[in-house]
Amino acid sequence: MTSTIEAFVVHFGEMGSRWGINRTVGQIYALLFVSETPLNADEIGMTLGISRSNVSMGLKELEAWQLVTLSRKTGDRREYYTTLGSVWDIFKAVAAERRRREVEPTLSMLRQALLSKPSGSEDRYALERMQEMYQLAEQANNWFDELQRLSPESLQQLMNLGSKVQKFLVVKERTRKALRGPRA
């Protein structure tokens, strides 16, 4: 491993815990991401200095996230791993898995809670707040559906529009306030 690749792999390992994966999984992913050719578990373990069992567990986790693909070489019984093609495909896969693990259970819990009858003012207030949270999460979830359908090129264009859209919305808000006039 070159020093540049090693720095990237080490950093990804350190960041892994902040992203909800362990250090080893982050390092395996980073190594696969920057490797020109698919790697087998033995090559991964040897390069990173980790045990075969840790490599296997890490690869299973990455497969669960649908972040790696596996292939075979003719005449070789080993499995070879690589990351998804483009960074946009990776972004979409991570976002989809986080949605499945985090957003969907929260929406489900909120739906259940919102079906209950309030037993008093405290419950009414709590349910109103939960309704606000549900509406926001549902709107974000629907927006995510739309993003998943976009091509990588369209996603990049959308991200490039970010600050321009924000400026447009600020102007729109100022115009709306000016048309309403001063209110006390």
Automatic annotation (TrEMBL):
CDD domains attached to this UniProt entry: HTH_ARSR
Protein's name according to its UniProt entry: HTH-type transcriptional regulator
Domain HTH marR-type: 20-79
Entry annotated with the keyword Transcription: yes
Similarity section: Belongs to the GbsR family.
Superkingdom of the source species: Bacteria
InterPro entries linked: ArsR-like_HTH, HTH-GbsR_regulator, HTH_MarR-typ, MJ1563, WH-like_DNA-bd_sf, WH_DNA-bd_sf
Keywords: DNA-binding, Transcription, Transcription regulation
